[in-house]
From TrEMBL:
InterPro entries: S4_RNA-bd, S4_RNA-bd_sf. Residues 3-36 form the RNA-binding S4 domain. This is Heat-shock protein Hsp15. One of its GO terms (molecular function) is RNA binding. Residues 80-109 are annotated as: Disordered.
Length: 109
């Protein structure tokens, strides 16, 4: 899902995580059977909570607490996106916008 708790909190604040179609706060208590929709660039992840833990656990244990019901889609990392060559410096504003468009980022206002 998310590599850090901070990243998960930011996604909640940005409205990228929804339960029953409503954006959620990071402090929301969830229960087994809850379906979570996580918006990612180019695809949506749908997870169902199987059981919860009373304490924070590591990733291998946490993966057993939910089931992934996401539709089969090509994820951006699997698509062979072009990589910028080393030593070419920072991308210009125009190049950055072209890269974001290619990767599927949508600027939300």
């Amino acid at each position: 899902m998310f590599k850090t708790r901070s990243a998960a909190t930011e996604a909640c604040r940005a409205g990228k995580i929804k339960i029953d179609g409503d954006p959620v706060k990071a402090s929301l208590k969830i229960s087994p059977g809850t379906e979570i929709h996580i918006s990612r660039p180019g695809f949506v992840v749908i997870l169902e909570v199987v059981h919860t833990h009373s304490k924070r656990v590591g990733p291998p244990v946490a993966r057993k607490a939910y089931q992934d019901h996401s539709p089969e889609q090509i994820k951006p990392r699997e698509v062979g996106l072009p990589v910028r060559e080393r030593g070419t410096g920072r991308p210009t504003k125009r190049e950055r916008r072209q890269l974001e468009a290619l990767r599927g980022y949508i600027k939300e206002r």
